[in-house]
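Attaching the record inline, Q. Sequence:
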Amino acid sequence: MNRKQPDTKKTRFNIIDVVIILAVLAAIAGVVVFVLVRNGTVKTNKTVRAEYTVRFTGVREEFLSEFSAGKTVKNSSTRNDIGTILAVRTPTKTLDYNTDAVVGEGDDATVLTSELDTYDVYVTISSTATLSDIGIAYIDGTKVLIGSPAYYRIDRFAQIGYITDFELIAE
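Structure, as predicted:
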């Protein structure tokens, strides 16, 4: 008769088991930190005052009066207030050509244009920025980097502007 022998084989603790346990613990810790940050128990960001300059290109003369110190600047996509104008510079007038019509075809085509007077406007804005732990500033949820575009509205004027200068102000 064949008798089954009791299974006396011991399970060993492998390196794979350690890796799995560490992964589970890391996932649990990540969830706990996420919940604490979301509830505001752990604060990861600091609020600072920022001054930055935005360049608007191709601004028509009729909109120059919209830029004046003390006016509120809004994010044109969210309509939230993002700061106040401190200073305005309009150093250059640029000539821009508007293509009205093309007459003819191929090598005989003639482009009729009209000349538009436009301006480059530099607006210095004071705002409240949120500074992340790694030093990146956000204004109204938008990352602020030199050269990056942002959507602005000042009364009747709305256009994409490019950040040319950025400075955090110590309080």
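Strands lie at 46-60, 72-75, 81-103, 110-131, 137-139, 142-143, 149-154, 157-169. Helices lie at 15-38.

More tomorrow.
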